[in-house]
Amino acid sequence: MAVRFLPATLKSRLALAGTLATMYIFISTVYLGHNLNPFSATRKDDMVEIPLQEKERLALNGTATSPQAQDTTSNNAEGNSESKLPSTLLVSAVFPLEKTKYPKSKYDEWLKYYLDSITTDIYMYTTPEMAPQFEALRREGLTISIDTSYTTLFEIPPLKGKEELYLRIQKKDRERGRHSNVTDLYAVRNSKLYFVHHALEVQKTKGVVYDYAFWNDPGSFRKEEHQYRYWPSPLKVVELWDEGSRLTGTNKDDLIFVPIFDVPHSSLSMWTENMGPIDSKLSEGSFFGGSPNAIDWFARAFYVYHDRYLSLELFIGKDTSLINTLMFLFPERFITVWHNDPDAPTHLALNRTNPEDSFLGQCGSVWHYYQFWLSDAATKESMRDLWIKKATQWHLWGWWRSADKTRCQDTRVLNINNVLKKNLGAGWHAPGHGTSIPPRVIWT
Question: Where is the composition biased (Polar residues) (predicted)?
Fold first, then answer.
């Protein structure tokens, strides 16, 4: 009785369903077009005043961003004193794995939204054969340095001569069945810190000194079009290191930023240095960095533990397991952001009760939340608009479910020491370390 109002035949019912779907698409399009503009800095009904410093930096979008171009002064975010905005270098590398070489067009697709969109200075390591391709992808007027000093990753000093040892540890890789040519993959992961350190040294010999340098996985922007340009925001970097120093009590020049994805299991509260690298979903290896001084210490510490564990034939095929180890041993040196922080004030304020609702609103990839978090205010608004538009588009499957329209929220800076204490127990403290870190880098 309840469905007598429907047409009697199957053909007419399908026609009715098609008409209703068309009306839904039309109404949704009109609504979104009226309320959202993915290319504007703000929503029409939620205008955000951009601080003066951000306006000055936004003026640089689409132009070359050399340290000299950044040598300007602006009001400090917390006062009226004059301060120079920091200069930043992004370091990446592309060395095709021997057994999984992709066509040229695939690399163009992956790197387009990085090399053509991000205006911050980039230092790229690659093979002589691939250098012209990446140089062509970089938009005219933007700074890029392409280094072809190495044709394979086992030519870089900290990995040279270690192919045989890498083969020996392969049997201890619990994910070895998922990858081919694993020794090359291990080398890709463990070369990152050398490349950041080396890039800074090369630039310094040319008279170009950066305040901060970050490793950035070259494919980290490949998923979709974005609004990131002058990234990471210099003002956000200043704010992050100021707050991080306050939280840790560590000098800003010694702090390292590494995003985290999850927290370690409580069983690791008993971990000691002699137990080997910590293979846990804690740190993200796709992005990290700090001042040249911090990078120098990070490289020295990373490779001394790399060599120690490798000599014992313990598995060191993941850079994140070594980074996790350093976080446990030297937590006072690390600051982070954690998208799924359950105690974050912005998350608690949302009062999420539906498990299907997003943790901090519509924020795109959880793994790459740090990209949004390290952006300026105007870019964040543009990305929020973009994500809301995507979330509220009509989809063939799941159109009957209401979309979460919560705009992406900012969260807080975290001190790794506090993160570990919170999850391993208030009585946890960093275990002692018996490995001596050399006072300076010596590549043998």
Answer: 62-84
Query: Number of helices (H) and strands (E), helices first, in the chain?
Result: 14, 10
Most confident by average pLDDT, 4-13, 91-100, 222-231, 396-405: 222-231
* Contact call for residues 160 and 154 (beta carbons, < 8 A): yes
State both tokens at 373: 């978090």
pLDDT tens for 376-409 read: 999 999 999 999 998 887 666 656 567 788 999 9
Could you please state the CATH topology (level 3) that the domain comprising 88-342+364-376+410-424 is classified under.
Answer: Spore Coat Polysaccharide Biosynthesis Protein SpsA; Chain A (3.90.550)
Backbone angles phi, psi at 91, to 5 degrees: -115, 130
Distance CA 89, CA 125 (A): 13
- DSSP letters spanning 161-216: T-HHHHHHHGGG-TTGGG-SSHHHHHHHHHTHHHHHHHHHHHHHHTT---SEEEEE
**For the whole model, what pTM was predicted?**
0.81
Write the pLDDT tens digit of every residue in 28-65: 444 434 333 322 233 333 222 223 334 334 333 333 33
Q: With contact defined as beta carbons under 8 Å apart, do 290 and 335 qualify?
A: no
Residue 163 has pLDDT above 60, yes or no: yes
- Omega of the bond prior to 51 within 30 degrees of 0, cis? no
What DSSP letter does each residue of 415-434 carry, written as one string? EHHHHHHHHH-TT--PPP--
Q: Could you tell me if 231 and 73 are in contact, meaning their C-beta atoms sit under 8 angstroms apart? A: no
Domain residue ranges in the chain: 88-342+364-376+410-424
